[in-house]
Amino acid sequence: MSTTTNDLVEAEIAAEQEHVDRVYAELAKAAQRAELVHAEGMQRGQTDRRGTGDPREEELAGLFERDALVYSASKRRASLEHQHEGLVFGRLDLEHTGGGPAAGREIRYVGRLGVRDDDYEPLVVDWRAPAAAPFYRATPVDPQGVIRRRVLRCQGERVVGVEDDLMVADPPEDIVVVGDGALMAALTRSRGTRMRDIVATIQQHQDEAIRAPARGVTEITGGPGTGKTVVALHRAAYLLYSDRRRYEGGGVLVVGPSAAYTAYIERVLPSLGEDSVVLRSLGDVVAGMTATRLDPPATAAVKGSLRIRQLLARLSREPIPDAPTQLRVFVGGHAVRLTEEHLRRARSQVLRHHHRNTSYDAAVDALAALAWEQVQHGERAEFVDRFTDSSDVEAFVRQWWRPVDPREVLLWLADEQLVRRLGVVSADEARLLAESYQRALEDGEWTVADVALVDDLHARLGPVVDLPSEERGFYEIEELDDASQYGVAAIRLGSEGAARPAGPVLDEDGNPVAVAVEATASQRLSRDPRTRLLAGRLGGAEEYAHVLVDEAQDLSPMQWRMLGRRGRWASWTVVGDLAQASWDDLEESARAREEAFGSNVRRSFHMDTNYRNAREIFDHAAAVIQEHVPDADIPRAVRETGHLPEELTCAPEGVVEAAREAVDDLLGEVDGSVAIIAPAAWREQLSGLEALADRVLVIDPLSTKGLEYDATLVVDPDEIVAESPGGVRALYVVLTRAAHRMTVLRPVDGARA
Ligand SMILES: Nc1ncnc2c1ncn2[C@@H]1O[C@H](COP(=O)(O)OP(=O)(O)OP(=O)(O)O)[C@@H](O)[C@H]1O
């Protein structure tokens, strides 16, 4: 084994550069061929399986060949350049023992996609291919034929560094060993504002979770910073690779707690060459709705619990508040008068067998039957025909039984009397619910918890079906008025799906005019809160082949049901840590979650190494949580910086100044992001500190779930505990967000300003 001097390192880098240059040259050729081979390549990638089971080796081999044909090569290359991360990131030096043609040394490069040369020899194997597995699985105890594992650090096409790990105690003379290990190098780097992929430094236990069989439910648990999220995302990329037809065709849904979270992770999958995954926060799982506001804990508890289903069931059977309450018509010379009680009977009869929004005909039939009971004269069939054909009856039913948008129905709960009448919840809870929807009607914003309730109502009511344009409901006429100022001449009301026109909309001369998509935009811009709440087309539950749920410990039972509707035939990856939970009734949540998973097989992986926090920071956080949750899942932090978290106090009136000084210090100590995590009571006052530098941001405790920063300033920890639904668990989340430095600032009455 040789020692490493600068010259040697340079020589090693130059040698690697030669290979990387060959790979890019081959890739450029492949890109030129791409259009020609596209059809053939995709063909080879299709396997005959019916889309269940896991891929067989030979099927995987077919997929790797397709990568050599790389229809998407140029696209991927562009995205890799954009990332400034290298296409080739690893090299294995292997020794094959025993006889046979394969005996001897082999050099194998590992990268984000597979590339072969003109002789069909692999220049790089895709990190997801079985041939790449030893890169992640080899250890000194079980080297799997690997002598040296090397990580190449690249910027675009340039090799800028190498880091080696030796797998054998006594390597051959010519094996040079460089660096202190790639993992430590990656962990000490500054983090930036987006999560990066870890494809070059995936650890053995992480790799097992990533490559676990596709079927069933794969659970990934572990404490903060143990790589659960990043592992789950690599698993999604692996599944797409290993059974592309199933997962790209059926769709992969990734759900996380907040919009800040989805923005944070959104680059990981594209950097691995996958851009077909749907990322959603809990506030926008239902197409057509976007919610970011959170309810106060007591209201969230009512909205999230399964008890609310019974209330929604009753609500969905309520008459439309402004609908007519009796029917008076002449049919075939006979006067018919159906009272409120008759209408109630007809309604419950129809709803016994039908979805409300798709039972127009059944509603007419039920009224006809009641009318016949009154008339009992002549032929029944003839009377029923006349009744059904009557334009007065039609006009009545179109108001009395018009399709209702689930969002409109949920807003009926703004009426406290109605909520009380429905029963199910206590008087206090009825008040909380009514206040919540009164507030929605004032400010035009849904809360995150409302999204799952709308989804539940949607499943009960059925899709909102089209009405002819002259039969719009009252709020839709408001939309029309509002849209006219944006040049929209007509709006069609559609049934399902996102804001898509039901067909071309024509003006009087038959020319196409602006369509519903623009109308939706105008609705969102509207100053009328009700119009904003009802803007856009509500989508039904789109089904996916795989559902990945992050921060799963926070989902309410109603949110589990919402995801369950989207994953009825799916396999699942579920990521969580109970000690970070912000939902109180963990047992009820567990039941709803079991129901969502059905009878799928389960497998579970536990992560016990914290890669995020410096040990000094994590020790501080662990002490806080263990005092309140003694059985919290505490991981082992692998990295020390020698810097303990700084704990400061200040007078309440001096918080902004003290925070400014603390942030200034942190900016001097780290290159990357600095987050000021503060409870609502302080956020506004502190928001001016964002002007200190581009890399400073002020954020609320809950929005930091799943995120990380190079340094954090945690302001007023006691208030964070007091204001958060999860109490000390929320503080634990906050205290585990910093990679390198953390300062805790505590306002104390009587302290020096
Ligand atoms: N093998 C690895 N190589 C390099 N970095 C890693 C590795 N594993 C994890 N990390 C890094 O550790 C950090 C924490 O990972 P991640 O956010 O996935 O953890 P988590 O368990 O989901 O955390 P939390 O539960 O606190 O949200 C990330 O910056 C991630 O990139």
UniProtKB/TrEMBL annotation:
Q: Which top-rank group of organisms is this from?
A: Bacteria
GO MF terms on file? 3'-5' DNA helicase activity; ATP binding; DNA binding; hydrolase activity
Gene Ontology biological-process entries: recombinational repair
UniProt keywords (A-Z) are:
ATP-binding, Helicase, Hydrolase, Nucleotide-binding
Q: Which InterPro entries match?
A: DNA_helicase_UvrD/REP (IPR000212), P-loop_NTPase (IPR027417), UvrD-like_ATP-bd (IPR014016)
Q: What's the protein called, per UniProt?
A: DNA helicase IV
Q: Upper taxonomic classification of the species?
A: Bacteria, Bacillati, Actinomycetota, Actinomycetes, Micrococcales
Which residue ranges does the record assign to the UvrD-like helicase ATP-binding domain? 201-614
Q: Which GO terms describe its cellular component?
A: cytosol
Q: Where is the composition biased (Basic and acidic residues)?
A: 46-57
Q: Where is this region: Disordered?
A: 38-57
- Residues bound to ATP: 222-229
| Listed transmembrane segments | none
List the coiled-coil residues: none
